[in-house]
Design goal:
The complex is a heterodimer. Chain A is mainly β. Chain A is about 5% helix and about 35% strand. Chain A contains four helices and 43 strands. Classes of the chains: A mainly beta, B mainly alpha.
């Protein structure tokens, strides 16, 4: 793959796959083509509502709403809030809740799912709950460490028939892969969808079935098709379920096609390369873009040394047939769990006097790949850089990795050095540990002695990705800076150490010769051993790839104490951008939501919410008034603070 | 006659201190229990409740315990300074700005006490002289 001929090999694969021999297959007899969806709702590039997880199918997170401006945003006040009651701090029988649901605004209603797998339909102006729907899902974290949801999806018929149910449908997935279809007006189950309104996605989990699939990310809806990815149990097995994407009919739940990023012949050795994040769609060209994650096991690749060109890639499919159009791998032979973790943002850029249909793919590495979205060819150069090689017996790490110097990566190429404060406070623990570990720059492989991974699987850019103003090509993205210790352990050492260690640090990779130890590089007080910042917000001009500004974003909070603003905060959840030149974002550890000036990056407004708002926010105009809605649910990765709050803000 | 002139001056600083400590106690308790401020229920918010309480008691001791030895009094005065500075720093890191204002007032009271106030023991001696 990293050989000079690798591009040719990949191109050959792509050609082969594109010619109809793709791992994508068409399922059984097709149902009659359903009527086209109305362009004003599903599949539309409209900027006055929030119809999908990312605002629109192009994943731009952009709103044309311009009532709230940099001049008046200081007058923003909370106008309603809803507490769903669906929250757990994990102290009882119910696991901790991590709530990252984007609220949708469509059908004159705000729809949001809860981590107890219920849907709330909320009046957009008052916060009054119109109806709720309960999946009665078992509240057990069967694949993930906590109960999670990232929201709902919405579909509506081309011409909704009055009095006929399920002309407008809201979908919610569960931890055990049940996809429920619910009438958007009444909250009643749509009996015509799959089996009495519930599609068991896990019925298709037939290869290397080690755990149930989890549908935590809402499906992507385009025309009359739902594209369904799923999450699994990370880091547990060497051989696991292959990452199949399912396309089903939005009304009937009938399978249309499936797509596998891994060839079937490697199923005995590996698995996953699933699509657990959302997807984006070029509606004009009917292209579906998949962020494909890494293969299993995540931190050792000795069992999967052959080329897997679609693993950790951005992959483009024909949305109608599922046929592979092109794919670009962003990490070769991934042994860092650098999943492609967010869908690309689609936007046209102006370069050399030409308008180019482009996409920008963010990454956990903090590198941005700007490609022609029709061909996959780079718009800004992508280099193959030599990287450090693994010394783990049996491993065959890739000699080079793709690197895009433009736009400037958010995470620097070198570890930022030991924090003097953390080192002194721990009597030199940080520097002692660093001395005993391997660190050779980006892509330092996991090792038996322990390696520093910077950036690590925690990011760079997380699953929210960035937002763009499609008029100007200004792209805004939040990024984290986290150093972690990656250590592979021979099986007997693993068994011994895992017995005594924290379950949060040890991962078996059962079936591989090595277990794995992963720990944030912190001292015994929990202080990060590396120098700040820990999180930033950046803006780029995608037309020339230049960085416009980059600022520390959010505040680290420990025991209630806020650390200096210059440190920034690790973030989860994305920003949105409005026509009036504002960025709205939660995401930070300090449980504040903010409005930021798109031109300067200055914070213009902030408000406290009940927990870190680790969800993409939404904005919409209803009855002539603009609202911005945040879900404040928390995520244990940031801090132990969970809530059940949905908060809407508007000008008073 | 001398004593009646001295008493009001003797107590001004410590009176400011005790009012500021009481205000700090109320504010920090409010911060700890009010749920909309980002620090409620946190260890840091609890810490300033405790430090404010200690400051209040220490200031009350200065005000009311007339028979206190000079050594103990001096020790209390120094500890109160540490308490003010520590609570002020904690308030800054908690972004609890009213609490910082209370600590500024407490520091002013402490300085007034240091410069102007007279210990009861020495007053008694003066009165007796």
């Amino acid at each position: 793959m990293n050989h000079p001929l690798s591009r040719i090999v990949i191109a050959s694969w792509c050609t082969l796959l594109g010619s109809g021999y793709a791992w994508s297959q068409t399922a059984g007899p097709q149902s009659p083509p359903p009527p086209a969806s109305p362009q004003q709702i599903v599949g539309a590039t409209h900027y006055d509502g929030w119809y999908t997880f990312n605002g629109n199918l192009e994943n731009q997170k952009y709103s044309q709403s311009d009532q709230i401006t940099p001049q008046n945003v200081a007058k923003l006040r909370k106008v309603w809030e809803v507490h769903t009651g669906d929250v757990s701090d994990g102290s009882g029988k119910i696991p901790l809740t991590d709530w990252s649901a984007t609220p949708l605004f469509v059908n004159d209603t705000v729809y949001v799912s809860t981590p107890f797998y219920r849907i709330f339909a909320i009046a957009p102006d008052t916060g009054k709950v119109k109806w709720t729907y309960d999946t009665h899902s078992v509240l057990d974290a069967v694949t993930q460490p906590d109960l999670k949801t990232r929201g709902v999806a919405y579909w509506q018929a081309a011409v909704p028939q009055a009095g006929t149910p399920c002309q407008k449908i809201v979908y919610i997935g569960t931890m055990d892969a049940k996809l429920h279809a619910v009438d958007a007006d009444t909250g009643k189950k749509c009996e015509g969808f799959a089996d009495g309104g519930v599609l068991d996605v896990n019925q298709w989990n037939t290869t290397n079935n080690k755990w149930p699939l989890s549908v935590l990310q809402p499906p992507t809806v385009y025309k009359d098709t739902l594209f369904i990815g799923w999450a699994g149990k990370d880091w547990a097995y060497a051989v696991a379920s292959p990452g199949t994407v399912f396309a089903v009919n939005a009304q009937t739940g009938k399978l249309k096609w499936v797509f596998d990023a891994l060839p079937p012949e490697v199923a005995k050795k590996t698995g996953t390369s699933n699509v657990w994040a959302s997807m984006s769609i070029d509606q004009k060209h009917g292209i579906l873009y998949l962020p494909v994650s890494s293969p299993s096991p995540n931190f050792f690749g000795g069992n999967r040394t052959e080329e897997l060109p679609l693993a950790t890639s951005i992959t483009a499919l024909d949305a109608e047939t599922g046929k592979l159009l092109w794919s670009r791998q962003i990490v070769h032979h991934d042994i860092w769990d650098y999943d492609t973790n967010s869908p690309p943002v689609l936007v046209d850029v102006r370069k050399d006097g030409k308008t180019i249909p482009a996409l920008v793919q963010s990454s956990k590495m903090g590198i941005f790949f700007v490609l022609n979205r029709l061909t996959g060819e780079p718009i800004f150069p992508i280099e193959e850089r030599k990287v450090p090689q693994s010394d783990v017996p049996g491993e065959q790490s890739a000699p080079t990795q793709p690197y895009a110097p433009i736009p400037e990566p958010t995470v620097p190429d070198r570890f930022p050095g030991i924090s003097t404060l953390a080192d002194i406070a721990s009597f030199g623990q940080c520097s002692r540990e660093l001395k005993n570990m391997r660190y050779d720059g980006r892509y330092t492989p996991p090792s038996l002695q322990g390696s520093i991974a910077y950036p690590s699987t925690a990011g760079g850019v997380e699953w929210g990705g960035g937002a763009v103003d499609p008029r100007s090509g200004v792209y805004v993205v939040n990024s984290s800076y986290v150093a972690q210790i990656y250590k592979v352990l021979e099986r007997k050492d693993y068994e011994e150490q895992a017995k005594h260690g924290s379950k949060d640090d040890y991962y078996p990779q059962t079936g591989a010769p090595y277990g794995f130890y992963l720990h944030n590089f912190v001292n015994f007080l929990g202080m990060p051993c590396w120098n700040p910042p820990y999180g930033t917000l950046s803006a780029y001009d995608l037309n020339d790839g230049k960085l416009l500004w980059k600022k520390p974003f959010g505040e680290v909070q420990k025991w209630g104490f806020y650390m200096p603003e210059s440190w920034g905060s690790v973030t989860i959840g994305a920003p949105l951008v409005t026509k009036s030149g504002l960025i709205f974002i939660g995401a930070s550890m300090d449980a504040r939501v903010r409005a930021i000036d798109l031109k300067s990056g200055s914070v213009l407004w902030q408000a406290q919410v009940d927990a870190p708002s680790v969800a993409n926010p939404a904005t919409y105009i209803y009855m002539g008034k603009q609202y911005v809605v945040f879900v404040a649910g928390g995520n244990a990765i940031l801090k132990a603070q969970a809530s059940d709050q949905v908060a809407a803000f508007a000008l008073r | 006659m001398i004593e009646s002139l001295i008493v009001p001056e003797r107590r001004t600083g410590v009176q400011i201190l005790i009012v500021a400590a009481a205000a700090s106690l109320i504010l920090s308790a409010f911060n700890y229990f009010w749920t909309d401020n980002g620090i409620h229920g946190s260890a840091g918010a609890l810490l300033v409740v405790i430090s404010s309480l200690l400051m209040f008691f220490a200031a009350a001791a200065l005000l009311f315990a007339d028979g206190m030895s000079r050594g103990l009094r001096a020790t209390l005065v120094v500890l109160i300074l540490f308490d003010i500075l520590g609570t002020g720093l904690a308030a800054y890191m908690l972004e609890a700005y009213w609490l910082i204002a209370a600590m500024a007032a407490a520091l002013a009271g402490w300085l007034v006490h240091l410069v102007s106030d007279r210990a009861p023991g020495s007053m008694t001696q003066r009165g007796a002289t």
